[in-house]
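Example 510.
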Amino acid sequence: MRQAHTVEQVRAAEAALMARLPEGTLMQRAAAGLAVAVSNFLGSTYGARVVLLIGSGDNGGDALYAGARLARRGAQVTAVLLSPKAHQPGLAALESAGGRVLTGGQAHPEEPAHADQAADADQEADADGPAHADEPAHANGSAQVGEVERVVAGADVVVDGIVGIGGRPGLRPEALAVVRLVERYGVPVVAVDTPSGVDVDTGETPEPHVRAALTVTFGTHKVCHLVDPAASACGPVHLVDIGLEVPPAEVRSLQAADVRALYPVPHGESDKYSRGVLGLMVGSTQYPGAAVIATSGALAGPVGMVRYVGPDPVAHAVLAVHPEVVVGEGRVQAWAVGSGTSTGSVDLERFHRITQQQDVPVIVDAGAIAALDHDRAGRVVITPHAGELSQLIGVPRDVIEQRRLHYARQVAEDRQLVVLLKGATTIVAAPDGSVLVNPIASPWLATAGSGDVLAGICGSLLAGGLPEFEAAAVAAYLHAAAGTLAASAGPVTAMSVAHALPEATRLLLA
Ligand SMILES: NC(=O)C1=CN([C@@H]2O[C@H](COP(=O)(O)OP(=O)(O)OC[C@H]3O[C@@H](n4cnc5c(N)ncnc54)[C@H](OP(=O)(O)O)[C@@H]3O)[C@@H](O)[C@H]2O)[C@@H](O)CC1
Ligand SMILES: Nc1ncnc2c1ncn2[C@@H]1O[C@H](COP(=O)(O)OP(=O)(O)O)[C@@H](O)[C@H]1O
Ligand SMILES: [K+]
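Predicted structure in complex with potassium ion:
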């Protein structure tokens, strides 16, 4: 299980550990891991041009010490100070290792430099050779602004040590000016602990922030590493062990071993009923394909049997592809309803009868989400994307996209059900505030019908006996794994994702 802790939890764990260790030990551990990660990112350290963006706190200290390590291995390291309060021992370490220091605390007023100017700057930087400690350090003011642009333009990597867990969302003008330069010249960024400017505890990005190609974090993951939109600004996240002992986290992410342990595998005594029967009330005459696709997702899961209920022409379409499906109502262990329906096409009488069976879990998708009774207590998973959640709670879609964790949690708590909020990253929130995030999925999954596969596999896992929270999270994990597998053969369709599910499951359980 990957855990994502809050700043408060990290601070408490850090204090407990620091009390037992000589001063500076944790920062040295962090810096050593960071230097190795930057080195691996670069491929070759000797002669590489590394620019450090340095804020006023320990995040900058990590970057400076890592920069010193890289300079000792032959990198040309330049620190750009964005605050007069930079970490002094780190600064001294960098300078004594041959690193250079510039003051970057001024906004650059000019328009974007011309592309060939950037190329010129690159060549000049090349011709410079390794920097030395006796080069001008802390030289005054505006002459350095042009120099900052020159080193940024020629950099192989920028290390973002502006702020970490002590930062408030957003970037101050002097930091923003340099970050814009970095973006203009397309230099990849390795973020120290967090991309500066994101909201660490919520994953929100209300203000400008750094976009990293890699984030190197310490001790444990933070919420912003798993939750969008901040997670998308992190790139891959590399965790450096610094010996931190942390309590259980509320926001977590299933790993392969967790999914393997949860997956309901049939055993010698199993029969089709004991493996679970899933009732599917999905598809409509308008969207008959959704029923076929959701059925494909369900049959690729652990369930022993699928019953289909819906309009006759849709049932015939399902049977044509899946002759193993039984048409008509009967006893089931779980229902999946709503995929491939609009709000107006849901069979409300049957829907309410189904959702009032308090002891049978139900996954409610698409058009049926809005038809769910507010007072329906019990075992329900809803699977909205941000647009559907917007319709349900009357909050604009873009506001939900910006505060995904907040709204997923709020709806789960208010309505006492499990919310699976779809998107590039998937958030599964339980009524008690627990959250499981699926942070990695192939963007190829953004294809029509992909959500129907997810509903099918989620229903199958529910019928197979997993509790709602775990069923939703395992479904998101397997859906993403199948999407990645399907995409290895090129662009995917929803059916190709469903067809990849058994192989993705086999690989996982092997
Ligand atoms: N915890 C651990 O286990 C370990 C932690 N370690 C490292 O320490 C880091 C935390 O260091 P930290 O506490 O010094 O805070 P940090 O994020 O560097 O800076 C905060 C300062 O920046 C300022 N500022 C605020 N907002 C801003 C903004 N938007 N834009 C610009 N500036 C802004 C504000 O200061 P001000 O300038 O307002 O006086 C504030 O005080 C952590 O992320 C990790 O890298 C590792 O070394 C070892 C193990
Ligand atoms: N950019 C993306 N990267 C990864 N997964 C995505 C992305 N966009 C959408 N998805 C996933 O694809 C599925 C789309 O479902 P949905 O929006 O219901 O589509 P449909 O209604 O066409 O089936 C969801 O599981 C969602 O999490
Ligand atoms: K940072």
